[in-house]
């Protein structure tokens, strides 16, 4: 699905060759500062490499409309983006930016349940905890129904049990719907739980390894 060839981000990342398969749960593991977030940002054109080529479904990302690409390849960033307003407002806003039909209450409530968020849709999102905000921004990405989820440590603010439960539920959902996931995690345990494919990173180099 993604193919990277001789990709370099100066002083941060060098990737000789890497293929990330479609319809799989890929985890990226590596020490802090090894370029994991930088790699993820390359995949939906939030950053561009200084050299090399990145293909998405055999087309060079540099030739694609970034907005179109980001409709198919959605990023859930490390620090959740929460807008003023209710939980419902925060769920609907992604759909409205993408000019898609609003979600119905049932669908939104199911997502809150999936993410173990015991909250009403009309509650103010501002008062949610860090871990709840993280799950809310993840749920917002799910409503967009993208082909590919890029997840930057989506469980970093969650306790171990909640992280495992949410991640397993998310994995079941993406399997059912044949989605592709590329997730950064510092937890080898979580990676072992969900990964079908693992990318191990070290500074200035990368090696892709299929489990
Ligand atoms: N825009 C930028 N300009 C300069 N340096 C940058 C930029 N973005 C990232 N870096 C540097 O590149 C290196 C890799 O950063 P990146 O965030 O990709 O690492 P990471 O593996 O995701 O780290 P962590 O696990 O701590 O989140 C870091 O040393 C960082 O300071």
TrEMBL record:
<dbReference type="InterPro" id="IPR017871">
    <property type="entry name" value="ABC_transporter-like_CS"/>
</dbReference>
<keyword id="KW-0813">Transport</keyword>
<dbReference type="Pfam" id="PF00005">
    <property type="entry name" value="ABC_tran"/>
</dbReference>
<dbReference type="GO" id="GO:0005524">
    <property type="term" value="F:ATP binding"/>
</dbReference>
<keyword id="KW-0067">ATP-binding</keyword>
<dbReference type="InterPro" id="IPR003439">
    <property type="entry name" value="ABC_transporter-like_ATP-bd"/>
</dbReference>
<dbReference type="InterPro" id="IPR027417">
    <property type="entry name" value="P-loop_NTPase"/>
</dbReference>
<protein>
    <submittedName>
        <fullName>ABC transporter ATP-binding protein</fullName>
    </submittedName>
</protein>
<dbReference type="InterPro" id="IPR003593">
    <property type="entry name" value="AAA+_ATPase"/>
</dbReference>
<feature type="domain" description="ABC transporter">
    <location>
        <begin position="2"/>
        <end position="211"/>
    </location>
</feature>
<keyword id="KW-0547">Nucleotide-binding</keyword>
């Amino acid at each position: 699905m993604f193919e990277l060839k001789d990709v370099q981000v100066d002083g941060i990342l060098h990737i000789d060759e890497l293929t990330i398969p479609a319809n799989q749960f890929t985890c990226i593991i590596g020490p802090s500062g090894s370029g994991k977030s930088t790699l993820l940002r390359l995949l939906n054109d939030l950053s561009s490499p200084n050299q090399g080529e990145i293909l998405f479904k055999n087309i060079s990302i540099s030739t694609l409309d970034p907005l179109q690409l980001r409709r198919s390849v959605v990023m859930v960033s490390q620090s959740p983006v929460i807008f003023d307003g209710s939980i419902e407002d925060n769920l609907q806003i992604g759909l409205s930016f993408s000019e898609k039909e609003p979600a119905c209450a049932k669908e939104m409530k199911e997502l809150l349940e999936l993410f173990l968020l015991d909250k009403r849709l009309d509650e103010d999102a501002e008062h949610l905890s860090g871990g709840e905000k993280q799950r809310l921004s993840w749920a917002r990405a799910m409503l967009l129904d993208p082909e590919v989820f890029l997840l930057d440590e989506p469980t970093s603010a969650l306790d171990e049990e909640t992280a495992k439960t949410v991640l397993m539920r998310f994995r079941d959902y993406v399997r059912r719907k044949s989605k592709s996931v590329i997730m950064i995690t510092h937890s080898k345990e979580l990676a072992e739980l969900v990964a079908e494919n693992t990318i191990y990173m070290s500074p200035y180099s990368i090696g892709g390894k299929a489990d």
